[in-house]
Write a structure and sequence with these properties.
Number of helices: 3
Largest sheet: none
Low-confidence stretches: 123-133
Length: 164
Amino acid sequence: MIEYSTDEDDRNFLQKYGWHFIILFITIYYLKRNVFMPILNERQRKQNYKQATDPQRVAMLQEQMIKVRLEQQRQAELKSNEAKEKKKLKKIQRLKETKVDQPFGKTNVGGGHRLGSGDDPGSSSTSNRNSSSSTSSYNPLMPSTGHAGPSYRPSRRSRPGGGG
């Protein structure tokens, strides 16, 4: 009958050969990481490159790429044409909205009704332009016009005093 080892025999075996197992595992890990894995990675990289540069595969991908680019070009042209049409319609609509109907059927070419010159469009605008009633002393772009008081003047900028 075979007698199996006891816990004491196992303990003695680990005490005697434990460091050998640890060194063996560290050596296997080092060889795997620094020797075998780079070789396997290089082999995998070469195989992938070979598959990627296969002439049949490249030709098929080239055909698909051309189809996709033609479709993209067609869609871009459609969008461009739609945008041109929208822009043209907006321009026409804007012209219709901004077009002012001329009073009394006159066009604005050569002569017409000047705003602020009076009710009668046939009156001479040059005489009204020179009169003081048609021109005002107030100019919104000139803050000093239109009132009798002194105009606002900001204080003068000065440098802070001190060392230097």
